[in-house]
Here is the input.
Amino acid sequence: MKRNLAILLAAVLLVSPMLFGCTQQEAVSPEGDGGEEQITITFPHWYWSHGGSFDQWIEGAVKDFTDEHPNVKVEPVTIAYEEYWNRLDIAIAAGTPYDIMAFGDNVGNYIENGHLLALDDYIDMDELKKNFNDIQNVYIPELAPDGKTYMIANVNAFYMPIYRPSVLKKAGWDSFPQTFDEFKRMCGDLQAVGVMPYGMMTNPGNFTEQWIDLSVWVIAQGGSWMKNGAPNFTSDEVKNAYSCIKELYDAGYIVKDTDKGTYRQMFGTGEIGVLIDGSWVYSTAVLADPSVEGDFAVADTSLFPANKFATAWEGFAASADTKYPEECGALLMALTSAPQMRKFLDTASILAPRTDIFDDTEYEKQTFETFPWLETFVENADNVQGSYPTGVPAAKYTEFTKIAGTALESVLYDNVPVDTAMQTAQESAEALLKS
Amino acid sequence: MRVKKLHAGRPGAGIYILLVLVCFVALFPFYWLINTSLQSPEELFKLPIHYFPTNHLFEAYGEYIRDSSILVWLKNTLIVSGTTCVIATAVGTPAAYALSRFRFRLKTAYTFLILFTQMMSAAFLCIPIYMVFSTLKLTNNLLGLIIIYACTMLPISIWFAKGFFDALPVELEEAARVDGASTLNIFFRILLPLLRPGIIATGAWIFIAAWDEYLYAYTMISDQTLWTNSVGLASYIGQYSTPWDQIMTGAVLVTLPVVFLFMYFQRHIVSGLTAGSVKG
Here is the structure.
């Protein structure tokens, strides 16, 4: 009996240090150099652990900021991309939102629910108006009912046809096709030499990633998801977009059952012929296969007469509950400044929505020597159209994208005629907007 | 009624072929895991498929261990899983004994309550738990995670152990009581030694459940230095690319401790899981 009690006591003593030792200690921050209060800004992002140079850029950018602001500590919070907004939602629901957060075109929902800080009083609005393009000054403010600025964009994502010339040459093509019919012929030739012709997201249920790939085809034809404040699913352009995808899918020209990150890597290794994607594909492709350097090209065509390219964006915002709005504003301005965006371009091959990136002619020359294909992106910067369905309230955006994705799945998997699927989608979208 | 006798003859070749096929199907995914972990990123998606590794095992794994935080994740997971296992087993076993042997008021309600907690999924509970733990400053530390795991796995631990206690004849205890043994004596000196395989099986189950758990781990922990295996491996899935070779390498390394655990305790685990299946 006594022996058993002794064993029990020993077990409790053994476990106790583990329990108390596991508790994180509260850090006592020293005062800054000028005796100012030391503050900590929490900054979650997937860049911190993404690799492919994103982590290098963000670590360097934050270090440059904290060197200039020694009383500010930026606490990195690594959250994987797949789980990012779930974690944000949990933190917001628990009343412990992070100070700085990243968003894409899902920012509208967070603005409407009052979770984000209006930045107008904390950032240089003249700088934004003068040196940022329509993504910052038109598309993003459209998402805010009060017209204020809640986000500063750092990624200007527009989607153009990307290919490796050596892979097309293997299939007998010295240049990229200029029409959809030529594109189909090229796909057949690629397939004949064992290359999967085209990569886009068709996995069931992956509505978020399907949305931009669908938008690429709709906008390429000069179409739009909404027209005059009403859903536009039954327009010729949207129907044609779905019909084109259906043709490619049925012919076996589109990769199946593969996530986007994987098929971007497959493009890098030459297993997939064409992506319609953003400039970041270069840095991903080079990591997958270094021979991509010098063998990477962007086609100056959307395959249709309208010649428009879909665009999306990402950026940073601050929490409405942050205790440090001025410091957050300063950090956001620093992260999206011209010098930092040039570094971002150099390390991650991503264009920022700034109009002054290439004001430095020496930098411009150097960049186009390093990334010759980037000129095609820059030249087509005015041929873009936002993928966000203008007129759809932010709270209904996710449901709207599900309607588009569900229609695609019914066309591809259930062989529902495109006209029928678009009619169903139209009715669903109208009901959604009325509700 | 005539009872057909089972002849204990040597199994035919057909049985062996079937067993080999089943083993192949069961082991192939693990082989593929190792094979993928030993491919370079450029070769992962090339055709024809590489069925055999191209990198050297020790070099590839050594590089991964050096360049990643896998050892930190393993350490954190070991702390969390080990402590959870000890707590849940140490608390659950006496609780199971009480449920199995004692009669007390509201016993049925208490038993039902234990089962009821299992009807609530982690997805349902994680936000309220996060809110409470955030107020108690228990987020972003391993103690908070241990408390959650111990509480969520305790009901199952109690239920498993109760089954083992129920299988033991009451006459054993009655005989010991006649000889003057107290309840605690009976528990520690008679029942626990008999139930060792069952307790090990329960402990192993709890350890593995805590080892693999993801939802609470990624919700409660934001500090990279406190990540567990599951959160660490999930962090590889990026926005623009996913290094599958590294994910597979990490997956092999985090599987190994559980494999060794099973190998060491397999005799006890098997006898624990099958205890009571044959009345003797």
